[in-house]
Design a protein that fits this description.
The chain folds into two domains: about 30-155, no CATH class; about 160-244, no CATH class. The chain is built from nine helices and no strands. The protein has helices spanning about 10-50, 55-75, 85-100, 105-110, 120-130, 135-155, 160-180, 190-210, 220-240.
Length: about 240
């Protein structure tokens, strides 16, 4: 009985899919970290230059505004029945995982306590170093919560991008068939340009919204970038080669 010979190409394909998926996940995490760090830096610069009179209250007001948008205009979602509670839960769990579970809050509380008279050691030195930057550290923690709320909003808005993409695909393929049967010209430059711009537009929409240094209604961001992304998908589908 002949033994079954394994096709080595299957292992290569499987390995390629797994490595590609892990690489995509790593890039997504990288862009999210970049957005978070950039938003914290922008907040710090704003506390010194743009809104010094607000200071720490600026990030606190942003967090309240982001949650108010959900309460007022997003009472239902395909992902969850209570978007506001979902976003608040994401923000609370992120705060707990980054600052409470890691005992960062306890460390900051220990450092922030004024030292007793005649107290020596490490804590008085750390307190003197922490006191000038205390507002910046707390602002970074609050901006992280704002980042979490916006990330939850983008997760809730995923069906919008899917719907826009589906409509764009249908419209693009209809335009392709009209071009095919009408003898229209084919441009590989337009196809490749539109294909390469689709993913950067999607990534840019997330990065821009997550790093905004002010509160903006998510509808303006989501609909604008969903429209641009759908436009690139429609152009890609319509300019796809006429004959397979």
């Amino acid at each position: 009985m002949a033994e079954a010979v394994a096709d080595p190409r299957r292992g290569d394909v499987r390995q390629g899919l797994i490595s590609k998926g892990l690489s995509t996940l790593a890039q997504a995490i990288q862009w999210l970290l970049f957005s978070l760090i950039f938003s914290v830096i922008i907040e710090w610069v704003g506390m010194v230059i743009w809104w010094p009179e607000e200071g720490l209250d600026h990030s606190r007001k942003m967090l309240a505004a982001e949650l108010s948008y959900l309460d007022a205009d997003f009472s239902r979602s395909v992902v969850t029945s209570d978007p506001a509670r979902f976003a608040q839960t994401v923000a609370d769990k992120t705060y707990y995982a980054l600052f409470e579970f890691t005992r960062v809050v306890d460390l900051l509380e220990w450092i922030s306590r004024p030292p007793a008279a005649g107290e020596n050691g490490l804590r008085p030195k750390l307190h003197s170093l922490y006191r000038p930057i205390a507002d910046f550290v707390i602002a970074a923690m609050q901006v992280t919560q704002v980042f979490s709320v916006r990330l939850a909003i983008l997760t809730l808005a995923t069906p919008v991008f899917l719907l826009f993409t589906l409509v764009a695909l249908v419209d693009g393929f209809v335009q392709r068939d009209l071009r095919r049967w009408g003898g229209g010209r084919e441009s590989s430059f337009v196809y490749h340009w539109a294909k390469r711009s689709a993913l950067p537009l999607l990534v840019l929409s997330w990065v821009v919204y997550l790093a905004l240094p002010f509160s903006l209604h998510p509808t303006f961001v989501i609909l604008s970038f969903a429209t641009l992304f759908a436009l690139s998908v429609a152009v890609t589908a319509s300019s796809f080669k006429k004959y397979l």
